[in-house]
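Kindly draft a polypeptide, keeping tokens residue-aligned:

***
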Amino acid sequence: MLEFDKLSLNVPPTTKKRVIIIGGGFGGINVALNLDSRDFQVVMFDKQNYHAFWPLLYQVATAGLEPDSIAEPLRKLFDDKDDFHFRLVRVTGVDPVEKSVQTLIGDLHYDYLVVATGSKSNFFGNAQVQKYAFPLKQMTDALNLRSQLLQCFEQASITRDLDVQQSLLNFVVVGGGPTGVEMAGSIAEMRTHVLPNDYPGLDFSRMHIYLVEGLDRVLPPMDPESSERAHKYLTELGVEIRLKTLVDTYDGQTVVLKNGEQLKSQTLIWAAGVTGSLIDGIPAESIERGRVLVDEFNQIKGLSNVFAIGDLAYMKGGDPEFPNGHPGVAQPAIQQGQRLAKNLGQLMRNREMEPFRYFNKGNLAIVGRNRAVADLPKGVHLGGFMAWATWLFVHIFYLIGFRSKLVVLSNWIYRFFTYQRGTRLIIRPFVRKEDIKQQEFLVKNEMV
């Protein structure tokens, strides 16, 4: 390995305007793809070397897709773009006065800075839940959860203790938004079509899937009609829904709800909310509700030539149709990235920037085979097969790279006709440091 003190960013000097982009998500890559290489040198920092299609992360977690089918190397995305430089480093902070970005291996000056760090799971200050729950925001989260699910079934098939077996077969999903609904529906379909064939000795009528939501309906951001449909689909799949219910504590064994109900479960999946992935150097007065305040041009309030886009950006009052900010989904990030790239070109030519206006193309959520809901423009609401087909088309369309589109489509076609999932291999066994019994089990079976 190279000595740490001999590493450097090694970005070539330039006479062009340098744009530094922190984050290779939907927003970041759309800025980079739309900037003119004749005018700008683009430097992108990220702590992972790939762009992932996060809306399909739950399918990786439930063995429906392999990780590389929803991810594309960032260097490959820009291999034909001149004067683009990617660096796999963690940003430690920014200095708006010196106009520099700080990393573990050095600092770099910018002319324009784009912060597109996205969001992370919000545990609302509940440290105990954070310690034991399974979030679903990164690829590593999905792989950890996949291993946990498969290990639960393997251990349930060999234990003689019925109480332990029941806790292994109980799964609690917290958060009734799209991620929670899709996750609960996916596990329910595994229970029906996959698991009885893999584990014929287990009685899957004893397997419980709980969906816990603090508000009065699932899919709160969507139209009430779509929420009602999704609730019906989940119920048909056997998901047990708890509305107007919050999680109090979780110790890795028992989920305690605010209403006093206790659910024995070794798997709590946290999809209950997100907060911005903030970085040091952004003034406290520019932060509100865990996100960064931006104007209608996505410029961070109080800073010059520093912009924030995507989940991190809170455009409060900047867009007349979305006075309380834009939803934390892919489309606002994509559109903000495209608009910001055009605006930076405008600045280069001493022209006025155009304000960002979000065009809402609709909201989609899938519950299971032929079960989905869609809120489309002009008040169109779809359910069932038509919404399901729309969901499939939209997600294939927005996947990055032809290979990913082909792999995901072929996987879905295969699953449609065979009811099968992926290979369901436990490649990287998951174990909590505190779970001594599980550690002993894995060691005795030479799995670690």
DSSP finds 13 helices and 28 strands in the chain. The longest strand covers residues 40-46.
